[in-house]
Amino acid sequence: MLATEQWSSTDTEYTLDDEYLQGMRHAGRDDWSSALGCFDSVMSRHDQFHPYFPIYNSAQGLARVMTGTSCGLNQCRQSVQDNPKRADLYENLARACLKLKQRKKTIDAISMGLRVQPNHPGLNLIKQQIGCRRRPSLPFLNRDHPINRFLGRKTYRRKL
After folding, report:
1. Could you tell me if 58 and 95 are in contact, meaning their C-beta atoms sit under 8 angstroms apart?
2. Angle at the Cα of 95 from the Cα atoms of 91 and 97, rounded to 5 degrees
3. Tens digits of residue pLDDT in 57-80
4. Closest to 55 (Cα-Cα) out of 21, 28, 32
5. Which residues pair with 41 in a beta bridge?
6. Between 158 and 138, residue with greater pLDDT
């Protein structure tokens, strides 16, 4: 969980900002405008060299998307690029893409995040909620090709 994380370096120990944690509580209650206010405040105090900057940036980006500003999606993408080993950042990116009705990009973010942390509860929950299709029976043919549709129906019935 992000709330208990610490980052140690040779001369400084970093902990997550209290206002960020308050923003996360607002986000947990779907109060995205209050969460955005907290994340804006956190971002105004920390520069891009702060170790938790990608986390703060991603949270602010998700809050922006949830309040109707699509430019927050770029913040989520940038955070994933800055720190590709954090599954939480992929979760924020997936939620932002889902809100903007970008299903393919949502699924891509989920699969990349699950490669980083296969048991991530947030990513697995989103995956379960949106439902992912099975692979086509013949992947070299289009999913809508009549042969794939026929084989898909037959194998689906057999698995039930």
Report:
1. no
2. 115
3. 999 999 999 999 999 999 999 999
4. 21
5. none
6. 138
133: exposed, middle or buried (C-beta count within 10 Å: 0-12, 13-18, 19+)? exposed
Task: Tell me the CA end-to-end span of the chain in Å, nearest whole number.
Answer: 37
The residue type of 8 is S
Pair of tokens at residue 25: 């509580």
Residues 6+ apart with CB under 8 A from 23: 34, 35, 36, 37, 38, 39, 42, 59, 63
* pTM reported for the whole predicted model: 0.79
What is the C-alpha separation between 75 and 73, in angstroms, rounded?
Answer: 5
Residues near 157 by beta carbon (within 8 Å), at least 6 away in sequence: none
Contact predicate 47/39, CB 8 Å: no
State how far the Cα of 73 lies from the Cα of 99, in Å rounded to an integer: 10
pLDDT at 99 over 70: yes
Cα 29 to Cα 147: distance, rounded to the nearest angstrom:
47
pLDDT of 4 reads 40
